[in-house]
Write a structure and sequence with these properties.
By secondary structure, this protein is mainly alpha-helical. It has 5 helices and no strands. It has one domain. The two termini are 36 Å apart.
Length: 103
């Protein structure tokens, strides 16, 4: 019974660490700021009589996907350079915690 509890704990830690790495890979705070500015720009557009909320949600979701993808591609392309710099050496791909295929 104790072995099952230890295995479960290890599995949970691995999952939490992997989720943390993916979060670091897509940089959600940066992505949200970029998408937020585009949504606000859409809402402030002149001569808009009525807002299409489906389009606003679509803009938000696709914006997050595009910016997250761009961040991931950037980290894969620059993994060797990132590994040499102190500020970026702890990024998931540069540090080897994630493979290029995962990034």
């Amino acid at each position: 019974m104790k072995e099952i509890a230890i295995d479960t704990y290890k599995s949970e830690r691995i999952l939490i660490n992997k989720l943390r790495d993916y979060s670091q890979l897509i940089k959600p705070s940066l992505s949200i700021m970029v998408v937020f500015s585009s949504v606000i720009s859409y809402l402030l557009a002149p001569k808009v009589v009525e807002y299409d909320w489906k389009m606003i949600v679509l803009l938000f979701v696709t914006g997050l996907l595009v910016t997250g993808s761009a961040n991931a591609i950037n980290q894969v392309v620059e993994k060797d350079t990132d590994a040499m710099m102190k500020r970026t050496a702890k990024r998931p791909v540069a540090s080897g915690r994630m493979t290029v295929a995962e990034g």
